[in-house]
């Protein structure tokens, strides 16, 4: 955690304390109203815990200051534009990170996701997600709240059917072959992937192994509208909101999309990989 991160979180906490005090509420009373433990209010106000967007919404509503929410959201966005180690993010397990993803998806109109070696979480079956999250917990040596995390990941997928949203997935063919779960679970995952092609809120592009690339997909990243890009590496996750970073990742996206196939051609490519698994 950087000094800038610590300073920003303390400043946000001070602003929350100010709003509570202006409303004439004690920390205990506010906690009771929100059905939170008093320690959570204390940690947030003292900059020892990063609030979720839902925390800010609840706080401003309880303080009778809904007009302060945009300011707090801007502060949180600036605070979270940073490098975060997976160890710190997953200290309480994977479910809290999945809840963050739900909140981010909720405020995004167009979500674009590039995954070179796995199926994007928004399209995963429970079995595939379970294997993926379990492997991540083992590798990063974090708490194994696998079932809670899987349920949260499935809740996030409800957004796929919101007619006001659009999701575009760019998947390298290598991800179709990569076996991270049992053969039946892998086959079911490919069936699921084929089934979403054609939904009016979803667009899927598959980059064939044989495609000529202007840019190689070295790692995955997610673009949330044109305001945020989240980049996943082995040890850290980067939340970048500056214009230069977003433009760089959008260019990478555009170049890779040039090499992708969509629609019936994408379905046929997935189908060939599925057929190679044989009956399950």
Describe the protein's architecture and organization.
It is a single chain. The protein has 280 residues and is of the alpha/beta class. It has two domains: 3-79, 434 Repressor (Amino-terminal Domain) (Orthogonal Bundle); 84-276, 2-Layer Sandwich (Endonuclease, Chain A). 52% of the residues lie in helices and 13% in strands. It contains 13 helices and seven strands. The chain has helices at residues 3-22, 27-34, 38-45, 53-62, 69-79, 86-89, 95-106, 126-140, 146-156, 173-177, 183-196, 243-257, 263-276; strands at residues 83-85, 110-115, 166-172, 202-207, 221-224, 228-232, 236-240. The mean pLDDT is 92.
Query: How many distinct domains?
Result: 2
Q: Mean of the pLDDT scores?
A: 92
Assign the CATH class of the largest domain. Answer: Alpha Beta
Instruction: Work out the helix count.
Output: 13
Shape: elongated
Tell me the strand order in the biggest sheet.
1-7-6-5-2-3-4
Major sheet details? 7 strands, mixed
**Proportion of residues in helical segments:** 40-55%
Query: How many strand segments?
Result: 7
CATH topology tier name of the largest domain: Endonuclease, Chain A
Return the structural class: alpha/beta
Low-confidence stretches: none
The CATH architecture classification of the largest domain is 2-Layer Sandwich
State the end-to-end distance: 46 Å
Helix-strand string: HHHHHEHHEHHEHHEEEEHH
Query: How much of the residues is beta strand, in percent?
Result: 5-15%
Radius of gyration (Å): 21 Å
């Amino acid at each position: 955690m950087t000094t800038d991160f610590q300073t920003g979180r303390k400043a946000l906490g001070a602003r929350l304390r100010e709003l509570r005090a202006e409303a004439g509420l004690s920390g205990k009373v506010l906690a009771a109203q929100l059905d939170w433990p008093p320690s959570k209010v204390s940690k947030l106000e003292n900059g020892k815990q990063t609030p979720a967007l839902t925390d800010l919404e609840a706080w401003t509503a309880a303080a009778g200051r809904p007009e302060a929410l945009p300011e707090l959201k801007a502060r949180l966005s600036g605070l979270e534009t940073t490098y975060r180690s997976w160890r710190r993010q997953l200290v309480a397990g994977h479910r809290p990170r999945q809840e963050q993803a739900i909140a981010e998806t909720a405020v995004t109109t167009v979500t674009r996701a590039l995954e070179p070696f796995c199926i994007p979480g928004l399209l995963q079956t429970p079995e595939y997600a379970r294997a993926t999250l379990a492997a991540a917990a083992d590798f990063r040596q974090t708490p194994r709240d696998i079932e809670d995390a899987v349920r949260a990941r499935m809740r996030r997928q409800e957004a796929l059917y919101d007619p006001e949203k659009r999701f575009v997935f760019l998947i390298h063919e290598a991800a179709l072959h990569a076996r991270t779960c049992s053969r039946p679970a892998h086959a079911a995952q490919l069936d699921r992937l084929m089934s979403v092609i054609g939904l009016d809120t979803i667009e899927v592009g598959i980059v064939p192994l044989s495609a000529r690339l202007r840019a190689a997909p070295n790692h995955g990243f997610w673009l949330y509208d044109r305001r945020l890009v989240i980049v996943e590496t082995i040890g850290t996750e980067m939340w970048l909101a500056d214009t230069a970073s977003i433009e760089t990742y959008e260019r990478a996206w555009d170049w890779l999309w040039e090499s992708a196939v969509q629609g019936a051609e994408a379905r046929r490519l997935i189908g060939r990989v599925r057929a190679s698994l044989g009956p399950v």
